[in-house]
Structures are given as structure tokens and as C-alpha cells.
Amino acid sequence: MTADDLWLRALADLTARSHRLPPDDLTDAVNTVLRPLGVAVTIYLVDVEQRDLRPLPQPGRPAPDPLPIDASLAGRAFTQVEMHAGQGPPPRLWVPLVDGTDRLGLLEVFPPAGLELTDAALRGGCRLIAGLIGHLMTSKSAYGDGLHRARRSRPMGVSAELLWQLLPPLTFATPDATISAVLEPCYEVGGDAFDYSLNGNRITLAILDGVGHGLPAVLTTSVALAAMRAARRSGENLAGLGRAVDAAVAGQWRDGRFVTAVLAEFDTGSGLLRYVNAGHPPPLLLRRGRAVQALDGGRRLPLGLADDRSDVARTRLEPGDRLLLHTDGVTEARDAAGRMFGLARLADLAERYVASGLPTPETLRRLSHAVSGHQDGPLRDDATLLLVEWSPEASARLEP
Predict the structure, then answer these.
(1) Measured on CA atoms in the order 135, 79, 357, 82, is the torsion positive or negative?
(2) pLDDT of 67-118, one tens digit each?
(3) What is the pTM of this model?
(4) CA atoms within 13 A on the CB side of 47
(5) C-alpha–C-alpha distance, residues 138 and 141, integer Å
(6) What sign does the CA torsion over 107, 359, 228, 201 have?
(7) How do residues 348-375 score in pLDDT, each as one tens digit?
(8) Are 121 and 9 in contact (CB under 8 A)?
(9) Dihedral over Cα of 43, 49, 52, 57: its sign
(10) Backbone phi, psi, residue 329, to 5°
């Protein structure tokens, strides 16, 4: 039996075990199926704030220390979504863990003594196993708390716990487009949220900011998200999505609360972008690596405040274009001297990271950390970013 056959057998064995696999037994199951190959692994998960890679605990074994993303070889493998070899001792491979294209962490692989880290069967087998582990981590996280706990450096607030359960994965890609989002402060979020949905060639996007802070703001945004999704799944157009949120928010509360938002539809076949701006900062268009325009059309009142206007703005994107959506907590973050982060700084950093050839989610991670670093103390408002990149090359960079 060849080495390739042994890896395929391990993959089949893990698949068979997965149906009744408790979440806390994932690492043990992986090591069990890889034992005939002489391979051992440790699973690292990216923490919620995307600063460290944290080991998934294994019963009876001391947990390794977390690994800093910005100052380690493992972190480079994570940020670049590429396999990297560490010469040790002992020698090891760092293999990205993704669910689809959503970055979850890394697989630290220890091969048997004497096997070169460049071995084709080893690398191909690691990619296969890591791909299945990524899917299992996502599916199994609904059945226990261990996978969630492993990603947290401190307790999560009630409002954040509620909101994170409502959001889609941070990154999604088709063969020709990539969508990625990031939200801070991740343990104490207020009313910010994002959403996306793919139907055929049409990607529907949303970024929202509920008025207020804490749990009341999250409740408002949650109702807006649910109303928008229900209307979208019933076939409503963009203007209809706004009206559905208006009715849901006004029907639930009588205190004048509202949600600012950008709702958009992007056709990946034609490049046509249609959008409505409900009292929200305008999206930023980047073309050929430069911020060229703020899309300020399609204006209406914030969602929850009935508005008879049904203007839907239209523009046509070019292949390679990037669309950056953000909430006001990004540009209004202030340093110790009271200086705001500002739109010009956001555009400049976005251009710089794009020029570096970073994967889409890594561009957003660095932008988000730049905002947090600018703020004097904890962020006073949610800071959410959503980036859409219309590029097959960008999509391909997210595959390990």
C-alpha cells in the first residue's frame, strides 16, 4: 500500500468516525486515524480577536502556549493561507485550517522521523485531512462549548454572544469573488452587523449599525437582520428589504430607534452593483489598487424610519475592483489627542495592504487592528468592515 493510499484510508476513517464524534474528541480522533502513518498533530484555532493561535486542549496533555499571529512562522502560514515548514526541532508542517475559505486556524503536523517535509504524499495528505477537519470544526461547534472556549481569551458579553450566533462566516468565496468581514470590539459588540447571501450570480450584501450600545442595540439589529433575510428569501428587491426592516423595527418599538445600513446586490456576471444607503457612511470603491470614489447614491432615511423613497443607485464595477464597506466606528475612532482615524487614513491603509498582495481577510484583519491601535483605550463604538473583491486571483489565494 502506497503512502497516498494510507492518507486516503485515514481520510475515510475520520469521515466514518465523524458522524458520532463529540466536539471535544476531535484532536484525539485525528491523531488516532493518522497513527498508522506515524504522524501526530496539534490543532490551533485563531482567537476571536485574530491576534493569537490557541491550541485545542487534549485530555492528559499539557497545552502549548498560544502563538502570536504577527510574530511567528505559524502566523505567517495563517495570514498567507499557505503551508509552511518549520525545521524544529522537531521538524513540522504548519497547515492552514479553513472551512471553505474561512480561516479557522492551523494544523501542526509532526511527520515520522526521517520523512522529508517536502514529501509530496505528506503534503497532499495534510491538505486532505486539514480540509476535512475545517468542515468538522464548523459543523461540530454547534454541539458543544469546547471549540468556542478554545478561541476566547476572556469571557464574552451577552450582546456579543447573541450577535455572533446570527452572523455568517467571516469569509466566503466563489471562483470569481471574495467577501470578508471583521467586527470589533469582538467581546463587547453593540449594534453593528453584516450579512451576505449568494444566489446564482447575485451576491446580496448588507452592513448595519443599530442605534445605541450594548444589548438594546443588538436586539434592534437582530430584528433588522431577521426581517431583511425573511424578505430576501421571499424574493423582495432592495427597496423591499428596506421596507421590511422599517415595518419590523417600527412594529416592535415605539421609541424611534433605527438602524443605518448599506444594502447592495452585486452581479458577478455583469459587474452591475445596485445599492441603497440608509443613513450610513458610503462604501469606498478601490480600482487598480487606488481608492477612487465614495459611492454616495441611493440615499434614504435609516431603516426603521419609514421612507417612501425607493431610489436604488447603480454603478458598474470592473474586474479586479474592491468594494469596502464600513461603519462610523471605524472612521470616528480617536487617539489620545482626539484625532479621528478618518476616511483618508482608511483609504491609505487599504491601498497599502492591497498593494502588498495580502489575501482579502488578512487585509481586513490588519485594517481592523490599525483602527484598534489608533483608538485611545477601548473602542467606544463598534468598528465593522466588509470587503468585496471581484477577482478570480483573490479567490484562489484563499485555498491552502
Answers:
(1) negative
(2) 999 999 999 999 999 999 998 789 999 999 999 999 999 999 999 998 999 9
(3) 0.94
(4) 21
(5) 5
(6) negative
(7) 999 999 999 999 999 999 999 999 888 8
(8) no
(9) negative
(10) -65, -20
